Predict the structure.
Amino acid sequence: MGDNQIPASNYKIYFEDKEFSSLNKFLKNNSFSNIVVLTDTNVKKHCLSILSKAVSEVKQKNIICIKAGEIYKNLETCQFIWDKLNAFNCDRNSLLINVGGGVISDMGGFCASVYKRGFSFINVPTTCLSMADASVGGKTGIDYHNYKNQIGTFTEPEGVFIYPVFCKTQSKRELINGMAEVLKAGFIADKQLAKDVVAYQKNENEFASLLKQSVVIKNTIVEIDPKEKNIRKSLNFGHTIGHAIESFYLSKKNTLLHGEAIAIGMICESYVALKLNLLSEKDFLFVEDSVLHLFKKVKLDPKDFHAILKLMFHDKKNKAGKIKLALIEKPGKPKLDVECSNSLLEDALKYYTSIS
């Protein structure tokens, strides 16, 4: 197995710096009746030309381009995609290439997983966030009434092709956004990785190494628990509160990126663990300091706490109407299915607003 390959359960994750040889080889070695590329307006403008110059199979194929942004990750956009697949005469021997960030891999995978009861897709992530997290693991999904990923499937791609070169097209804000998931991987599985993220000095090779370590951690966990019955829940550390904050801000003028919301969630959920005597104050401060080193504090309005708390009740980890959190007992040691009261969740939000 080459150094650039990470074997997943039924597919491979290819990790290359600049060359596109793995993707070219995959496309030439498989016989698909039709190949369609799904992307968005931002990716088409900044990344698609890089890919099409290196991969002739992409240049020649049908393209579905949707509007960029989490607000378009919905059923209406899925209908647009399915209509395009019909127009391109796709069948169950076709291939969908999802080229973009987490919205594209989540939604493209979902559309492919149910269209004509499912056809093949691969992910070519173009953002730091999607490379570190969304493109890997076989989760597909869309938002429903502003609730994050409420409709979806567990469907594995035929392959994931990660090329860190695409990250050069991103803004500093987007790059830091993606590092939230790398930091999370460190918190739940490898404290040294979290330390390395904080110490990261904008070196290309170092950046690629951090991404790859994060992918290996996620893939290892997913291989053990593909349907999120147990340990895979640990990947949701920071996400119960973080997703609720992200969902709340979807309808606001100043939206938060996924990683920015998860950063808040990781501090708040660590505060919950501290108050439940699961996490020491020293380890809590390690999490808080690490997050705040990368992410500026966001000003939350206490008047919004009730609405944010209400959104938490739609989290997929909940059971029998009870909010269940994936916390950590110390960096590298997750604690699953921790029930939490509304008052403690609100206290956690209040604590975050009090940080100076």
Summary: The chain has a mean pLDDT of 93. Residues 11 and 55 are 20 Å apart (CA to CA). The two ends are 49 Å apart (CA to CA).
